[in-house]
Amino acid sequence: MVATWATAGDVLTYAKKTVDDAAVMVAQGTIDLYAGRIPADADRVGARDQYWLKLAVAYQAAWQAGQPDLFERLDITSTGGSQSTDGEESWMTLAPHAAQALRRVSWMGSGSFHVRAPSETGDRPREVYGDDDQIDPGHWRPI
Q1: pTM tops 0.70
Q2: Is the pLDDT reported for residue 90 higher than 60?
Q3: What CA–CA distances, in Å, run from 17 to 22, 64, 143?
C-alpha cells in the first residue's frame, strides 16, 4: 500500500468509523491538497506535524464516508428560499475536524512567527553585518 499519514485503523481509533484503505487514500489525497505535503516527505516533517496530519486524514476519511456526492458538488451560495450559505472555501470538501487539525500543522498556522527578545538569546544582541570591516569580514558591528 502507498504510504499515508493515517491508516484505516487510525480512522477507527480517532473517529470511531470503519473505512477501507481505498477511503483512506481518497482522504489522503484531499489532505495532501490542503496541507501541501505528501507522506513521501515524512522524513522532513516533524513528529508533531505528522500527528496532526494523521488526525486530519482520519477525520477526513470518516467524514467523507457520509458525503456520497463529494466529487460531484457544485459551488453554491444559496440553498433555496432566502437562505444563503457562505463559508470557508473548503466547507464542502474538508471535514470540520480535519480543518482544525490542519490549522495546528506548523506551516498552516497563522503565518506569524516568534521573534526572540534579546533576553531569549544565548549570545549578545544582534548588530548589523559589515563586509567592509578589514580586520574580520564576518564580524558583527553596530551601525
Answers
A1: no
A2: no
A3: 14, 11, 62
